[in-house]
Amino acid sequence: MDRAQKEKVVDELGQIFASSGVVVVAHYAGITVAQMQDLRAKMREVGGSVRVAKNKLARIALEGKPGASMGDLLSGMTVMAYSEDPVAAAKVAEAYAKTNENFVILGGAMGDTILDAAGVKAVAAMPSREELIAQIVSCIGAPASNIAGAIGAPASNIAGILSTLEERLAA
Q1: Are residues 121 and 136 located together in one domain of the fold?
Q2: For 43-96, what is each residue's pLDDT tens digit?
Q3: For the chain, how many structural domains are there in total?
Q4: DSSP the chain
């Protein structure tokens, strides 16, 4: 790899570190090509990506970026999983680590916050962006449906009373 290619890789990694909501670093020694392709496919499904890069180039790219101290995790055969959604990459990486013992999560970064393996697990347990939006919408919609029910209840009660009176008069 010549100098121009290295500079290009450093620029790409710098953009990844600057724009990603979360970056998860893991060891992948012993993972087959098919397993890595499976991980990449799962990550693509949630809008994330997987990147293998030389640790030295990744450390250079981290300089001056949020989570620069994540460089301490970059040793050995490492892979980086990242996504703009702050939870998606962590969820996929955590689920993949449960099914493949060769994929070992070391930690990661969420903005300026450095995460250890337990931190990545905690982030993976959080609801995703879509789940949070659904929860907020249901919270906003619940009072409106309660109001509609309360407004409709007196009319329903009056109708019940009138039908009872009608039955009594008919009898």
Answers
A1: no
A2: 999 889 999 988 899 888 888 777 777 888 888 889 999 988 888 889 999 999
A3: 2
A4: --HHHHHHHHHHHHHHHHH-SEEEEEE-TT--HHHHHHHHHHHHHTTEEEE---HHHHHHHHTTSTTGGGGGG--SSEEEEEESSTTHHHHHHHHHHHH-TT-EEEEEEETTEEEEHHHHHHHHHSPPHHHHHHHHHHHHHHHHHHHHHHHHHHHHHHHHHHHHHHHHHH-
